[in-house]
Amino acid sequence: MDKKAIKILLSTFAKAQKKDPANWFKNYSNYISDEDFDYAKRHCTMFDPMVISHDEIFVRIKKAVETIKKEDVVNAFLYSLSTRRIEYRSFLSSYCIGKVIPIHPLTKCEQPNSIYCSICGLHTGYYSNELNESVDLNASNYSKYKFGASMEFAHQVLFDLEQFHHFPKVTPTEKDVEILNEIKKIIKSSAPDDRIPVLRKRISTAFQKSNNYERESLLEIFGVIGILHDETHLGFADRYIPFTERESRPIHYDDVLYPANWWQGKHGVDEEKWDFWFGKNR
Ligand SMILES: [Zn+2]
Fold it and tell me: What are 176-189's pLDDT values in tens digits?
């Protein structure tokens, strides 16, 4: 990816957040010139809105995920560890979700949540089966580059999977595998009631440089791919977890994504899923 194009993406949103803290993700276009926007679009870091219907999202996800090899997304994730190229991380969770997500018609949740699709969680005010809607993905791409964030919603998963082929294939090094193993060791040495906010601090010693946001995003990816969960709230490696099953914890404020939000130290690492993604020798 072109360095200048990445810089345009990051600096546009940084400016927007500073000047318009409440609505930066909607009003960011006030902080970028037409010339820079065109440059970023040419180099695939910013985009015109994607016009798509609810149903088409899932057809395209299936098409995209079938062209991607598991080994390549695992390698991308590993490569991100020593290089801090955190934009390579979300492909792993997007691939995992893309493999199991069902093609389905928009199916409204029961009242009072009928504004959401009960299967994927997309907002029915924005998406419908028949109408094409315009989706802005630039804020999602900003989170991908800035925090290595896992793509939570189906349109973001589609975007991520379709982006994968624009990234050069990468090969992890021994250093990446060392960092991965160190993270596993730290997770397994957690106190029984530790949760993600504690763990995200503890894994900082595995990296040369990192911040809380990107480490939390990494652990959320581990949740999505089935490595961090509790006894009943599982990740997406074996089956798609419908929106209505992705429970929040009964506390006032918890911004950790499902199912990592349910993980505690006593649950350790799901060894079967660890081996499935990273192999027994890693
Ligand atoms: Zn849906």
Answer: 999 999 999 999 99
